[in-house]
Amino acid sequence: MDFPTLEDVVGNTPLVRLKRICAGRNNTLLAKLEGNNPAGSVKDRPALSMLTEAEARGDIAPGDTLIEATSGNTGIALAMAAAIKGYRMVLIMPENASSERKQAMAAFGAELIGVSKEGGMEEARDVANAMIARGEGKPLDQFANPDNPLAHYRTTGPEIWRQTEGRVTHFVSSMGTTGTIMGVSRYLKEKNPAIQIVGLQPADGASIPGIRRWPQAYLPAIFEAPRVDVTLDIGQQEAEEHMRRLAREEGILAGVSSGGSLAGALRIAEQCENAVIAFIVCDRGDRYLSTGLFAPEV
């Protein structure tokens, strides 16, 4: 019997129908539970893809040092993939990332370098690029690496199409590196150009892990604006409230960006009927417990 390895069980995550959170007008809300991946997020897919494809091209080999800027989930996924394949992983991230995220990366053996909360991901990317320029390691660069969206074109998109039996009408996703929405959009539009692709960015003043509004100079090179039909601004309170709703009304413990995805899906549902709306639940909520976001309201 040929038993699977950990790499073999990345992907093929459940797509579940919400039961208590009602979309009305005969609409169906479907949550893609990416927290069921081995390292706990949607980023397992591109992390493994970037390493595997780079190895196939001969760009990297086990024993190399890899350098990546991350806000959390990609770092955890890359740390896992590096542990599987035998790489030294150096991750640069803003210091305000949750303690659970930092501890998970360290548990997989990654080395962490912090940058200021104020500098954020832009500073993390600058530090990573400077280290790479000094020859301290090799880049993966999730923001410009086509193997990021390729993972979702090959896996996430086909899964949603298969799991809905081709009935999906809308796909809703946070936009961070934009790899998820780019890859899924490409696949679903090839199957049915009428499917609406909805991207989420933070409203002014919001700081939601996994959802970014990039300055033009830092816009991910993999992003192609025509692949997104509708862009919605998601507020901080809105995302957090819907994150708690997922846990308390549907039993889905997820992070803040997933709450934003639910909020976006509900907004879309207000404008249509008989729709099948799939949205990404990016990760698990247990990596945010120390932030107090799930604490009982007083």
Give the gist of this structure.
The chain is an alpha/beta fold. It has eight helices and ten strands.
Give your account of this protein's structure.
With 298 residues, the protein is an alpha/beta fold. It has two domains: 164 residues, Rossmann fold; 97 residues, Rossmann fold (3-Layer(aba) Sandwich). 37% of the residues lie in helices and 17% in strands. The chain has eight helices and ten strands. The strands form two sheets. The protein has a six-stranded mixed sheet with strand order 1-2-10-7-8-9, with helices on both faces. The chain has a four-stranded parallel sheet with strand order 5-4-3-6, sandwiched between helices. α6 links the parallel β7 and β8. α7 crosses α8. The longest helix is centred in the middle third of the chain and has 17 residues. It is globular. It starts with 14 loop residues before the first strand and ends in a 17-residue tail after the last strand. The mean pLDDT is 95.
Question: What would CATH call the architecture of the largest domain?
Answer: 3-Layer(aba) Sandwich
If you consult CATH, what is the topology of the largest domain?
Rossmann fold
How many β-strand runs?
10
Cα distance spanning the termini: 55 Å
Name the overall outline: globular
Largest sheet: 6 strands, mixed
Estimate nothing, just give the exact number of structural domains: 2
Amount of helix: 25-40%
Order of helices and strands: EEHEHEHEHEHEHEEHHE
- Under CATH at level 1, the class of the largest domain stands as Alpha Beta
Structural class: alpha/beta
Question: What radius of gyration results from the CA coordinates?
Answer: 18 Å
Mean pLDDT over the residues: 95
Q: Which spans of ≥5 residues are poorly predicted at pLDDT below 50?
A: none
- The percent range for strand residues is 15-25%
